[in-house]
Design brief:
With 218 residues, the protein is α+β, with helices and mostly antiparallel strands. It contains seven helices and seven strands; from the N terminus they run αβββαβαβαββααα. The protein has a seven-stranded mixed sheet, sandwiched between helices.
């Protein structure tokens, strides 16, 4: 895809994450790897007013934190960039503040293997990163630790991060993560949720569905 096409797809997915209830207002952000740069949403621009030119370019092979565009990048650019730099498998990142992921993150809870689809995130759980102020180096460090061998994590008292081999894949994971968080939240309300064994999750993971899924806007 061309630079301009990717920028437009980013805007489409920003609108989609609010339509899906994953996000409210302009609190979420999206990034996509493009050649040797990262394209990321600008800070504080309503998605329905965002243009392709507003999407910020941040080189990954130049001075750290350099950006190009008419507007500054999202305040969370640091963990987007650090994930891209440290994880060559990541092509896109979706960061949102969904109701149930955030509720669990406020309780500083990881999401265990309460459902077999937890395997879509690379292991037996989705970790909750330690708290740090938004936009800081500390938050980026904490997120990277929580994402080790995983494709998603919660951020304490904040929200969630989902990564993917494409933007549709990352968005699919963000939706799936919120769905499982909702189910886990409900099971905690009922009481005594049953967690699947590590072997059962590994059996699901090796089927490879989470790696091969491409996703689509619908």
């Amino acid at each position: 895809m061309s630079d301009s096409s990717i920028r437009q797809v980013i805007i489409e997915h920003c609108l989609l994450m609010n339509k899906n209830g994953l996000n409210q207002g302009v609190s979420g952000n999206i990034s996509v790897r493009f050649e040797n740069s990262m394209l990321i949403t600008p800070t504080s621009v309503p998605y329905d007013q965002m243009s392709a030119e507003d999407i910020v370019e941040m080189p990954m092979d130049g001075e750290y934190g350099t950006w190009f565009g008419p507007k500054a990048p999202s305040s969370e650019w640091r963990f987007h960039l650090d994930i891209m730099l440290s994880r060559k498998d990541v092509e896109a990142i979706v960061h949102v503040h969904p109701m149930y992921c955030t509720s669990l993150a406020i309780s500083r809870r990881e999401i265990p293997a309460c459902h077999y689809m937890i395997a879509a995130f690379g292991g037996i759980n989705v970790r909750c990163a330690d708290y740090a102020t938004y936009g800081t180096e500390e938050l980026s460090t904490n997120a990277l630790a929580a994402l080790e061998d995983r494709s998603a994590c919660l951020l304490s008292n904040h929200g969630s991060i989902a990564t993917g081999h494409s933007l549709p894949n990352a968005m699919w994971r963000a939706v799936e993560l919120e769905t499982i968080a909702h189910q886990y939240f409900n099971s905690l309300m009922i009481g005594n949720p049953v967690v699947l064994s590590d072997d059962l999750i590994e059996e699901t993971r090796i089927k490879g569905f989470s790696h091969n899924y491409t996703g689509q806007i619908c």
